[in-house]
């Protein structure tokens, strides 16, 4: 998911450097719009929520391990 955001940032920077009437601009804009649409899709949103939930669980487990280690020693 971070890859999508990174790619969008790259495309935005490239779009700023390319003339709007060029074929390259059209291709970059098409990919940019495709990725923006992808981010709005229900599947992407669900994966994003699931990743956030798993990340929170991981942080919780790490905190529990750290607390345990402090008690032991």
TrEMBL record:
GO CC annotations on file: transcription elongation factor complex
Family: Belongs to the ELL/occludin family.
GO molecular function annotation: cis-regulatory region sequence-specific DNA binding
Name of the molecule in the record: OCEL domain-containing protein
Pfam families found in the cross-reference section: Occludin_ELL
Alphabetized PANTHER family for the sequence: OCCLUDIN (PTHR23288:SF6), OCCLUDIN AND RNA POLYMERASE II ELONGATION FACTOR ELL (PTHR23288)
Domain OCEL: 1-73
PROSITE patterns per the UniProt record, alphabetical: OCEL
InterPro entries: ELL/occludin, Occludin_ELL
Highest taxon listed in the record's lineage: Eukaryota
UniProt-listed GO biological process terms: positive regulation of transcription elongation by RNA polymerase II; snRNA transcription by RNA polymerase II
